[in-house]
Design a protein that fits this description.
This protein is an alpha+beta fold. Helices cover 40% and strands 15% of the residues. It has a 3-stranded mixed sheet with strand order 1-2-6, with helices on both faces. Strands 3-4-5 form a 3-stranded antiparallel sheet. A hairpin with a 6-residue loop joins strand 4 and strand 5.
Length: 262
Amino acid sequence: MTTSLAIKNDQDFWSNQQLAALKQLGLNNASNGDLAVFFHQAQKTGLDPFARQIYMIERGGRYGIQTSVDGLRIVAQRSGEYAGQAGPFWCGEDGVWKDVWIGKTPPYAAKVGVYRKGFAEPLYAVAKWDSYALASPVWKKMPDLMLAKCAESLALRKAFPNDLSGLYTDEEMSQADSGQDSTVKPVKVTLEPVVAEVVQPVSPQSETDWEGIMEKFNECKTKEDLKKFWDKNKTLLDEIVPDGEGKTLRMLVLEKVATNND
């Protein structure tokens, strides 16, 4: 990335040169609120939007932020807490996990575990074929690889929620956009619980009064109100808001700040 396009730590928003470059990447219709959220994620993750490590894409009339699985790996590695992976593994109709997929039909599911320093066990995530597969040439040609990417993305976010919450890969989002089921049929199986997954503690989010918090958020009319709200809810800023379309509380506040003229 050239010096003129580099995002600096003391920046509050995109520079004019950066905005011009983003328009060339297809973001000329994005609102200031969307651009503020994109700036926050790029600055927070350290990923380069001009090298397409992180990018914003319009889906159904709304902008969303995406990255590649390589981008997720970069953020995890830079944290200093990443300690490798287990897998990927795949299973078919027998429910037995294998470290290579040689079946003539697509795998039923893929599984990846991510190690983080200080954790006794890897954090596993499972991606099912019928949840992510598309009737596209790349999914037909490399079904095991594409499904493993989804499982790895899930596992990386699970292991590094503060760094990767709200960031999804194209492999994860494309099925949601398709509006139809994949015509590449999954293997019909009934899986027994043959593998014990790591049981995670109950998320603090489940104990949070999100209804009350969002009521207070909606009452914020000025930037001063938003600043007070931000300071009062600092511990929840990186939590994903229920029914917030995958956005964290931090993203929603920044969007409102960017569009508030008071």
